Amino acid sequence: MNSQKITGFVLLGIGVGIVLYALFASYGIFTGVNEPPELFREPALKQSTGTSAELQGVEAQINALVGQQLQNLLPENTISRMLNLFAWSAFAGLVIFGGTQLAGLGVKLLTIKTV
Q1: More confident residue, 76 or 41
Q2: 8 CB contacts (<8 Å, ≥6 apart)?
Q3: CA-based angle 77:48:57, to the nearest 5?
Q4: Which of 17, 72, 74, 105 is most buried, by the most CB atoms less than 10 A from its CB?
């Protein structure tokens, strides 16, 4: 067995291993077993006491109602979680593409006829 075949098997094994790792990690993230890497965070909301003159009375009640309705419509951290899942999907796709290229190169090295 020459060095070209050995290199082909090594590249094929590394490529398949990378693809399997990315798929396994993605399965864990999308089933909820693991958390995706946190690249995006929503800033903490500051709650004002409403003691200033402009936030008294009807305006303060309207602000509270609008905030409550928005909280019911879109739960906390929804946007950042979706962005984190999208970022993980893009990264996993890139890793799978790279693993596929390595495995393909390994297969090409294995199929080349040597004289």
Answers
A1: 41
A2: 106, 107, 108, 109, 110
A3: 120
A4: 105
CB-based burial label for 107 (10 Å; 0-12, 13-18, 19+): middle
Q: Find the distance separating the first CA and the last CA of the chain, reported in whole Å.
A: 13
- DSSP structure string for 21-42: HHHHHHHHHHTTSSPPP----P
Q: Are 5 and 109 in contact (CB under 8 A)?
A: yes
The pLDDT tens digits for 17-37 are 999 999 999 999 999 899 888
pLDDT at 41 over 80: yes
Residue 39 amino acid letter: L
Residue 9 — very low, low, confident or very high, per pLDDT cuts 50/70/90? very high
Integer Cα distance of 98 and 73 in angstroms: 40
pLDDT score, position 54: 52
Query: Rounded to whole angstroms, how far apart are CA atoms 58 and 81?
Result: 34
Report domain extents, the chain.
3-36+60-111
